[in-house]
Amino acid sequence: MENAQACAGERESFAEWESLLSESYVPLMADPRDEGTFHGRIERSSQPGFELSTISASGQRIRRTRAGIAKTAGEFLLVSILTEGSGLLHQDGRVALVGPGDMVFYDTSRPYHWDLDGPWSQVVVQTPLEVLLQQLGPGASPLPTAVTVSSDSAGGVVAGFFRDLARIQQSSPGHATVLAVNGIKLLASAIRLAAAEIPSDQPAQALSREQVLAFMRTRCADPSLTIDDIARACLVSRRTLYRLFGDVEDGLSAVLRRMRVECARTLLTRDPGRATATVALASGFASERHFFRAFRLETGMTPGEFRMLASSALAV
Which domains does the chain have, with CATH numbers? Predict the structure, then answer.
């Protein structure tokens, strides 16, 4: 169990609260919204597959920044069930207005921020995205981030479960652990229900995909380019990248390989006397052996055979 109390007039004290937020969840930044006395409290417990906490504090803005994301090793889904006060959650171009009893999801691998007024309290569930995605199974819809799940909806039943679980944790931790065994399954069900509320984003996905491809075309000749580099440059998570190219056989790595092979084909045709090792490096391959293997996979011939074929075609 952890708690923190501070005064808004004392920056170091509020910094202690910001530090506690980051230690309890993921690296975060916080700014007080109210003048006068500040108070904040967090109580946490570990359950099968997730962390359960209750948090209460004075009004503030809580921000998940790209700098904070870079400091985080894992990716998590956070689920907030408001029990007091109101707030606005901003993520993925959506804004969710959340009141008492409402539930909302947000992904720590992308920026978000909370605007929370007055005294407020939440029950928070934190689970690794990997655990959740295993439960959702292949072909799952995008996570319904910043979509309000109202207390009177079907998903509200799940919100009530976690709210009651946090209450039972206070008085009977052993009983709470027994009930928590089904927590991830219930959470996955609520996510499936909430995903139906997201407007179709196919045009946005198509635009994002073209942006990724455009970046890859300009950087594919860099042997050090990785999937993580592409994700950071395009301001998306690895999971989003894989989803955008989920219909491509062998995924995004195959797209990058084909771009590099196409670059090599151009160099081999344009400069027949250029050494194969130099072509490999200039096309983005880390080694000549890797280049030969990828080239044969994509074209059905070796670079030397392709060069001879290209030279014969030019001579005709």
Answer: 2-195 (2.60.120.10), 202-315 (1.10.10.60)
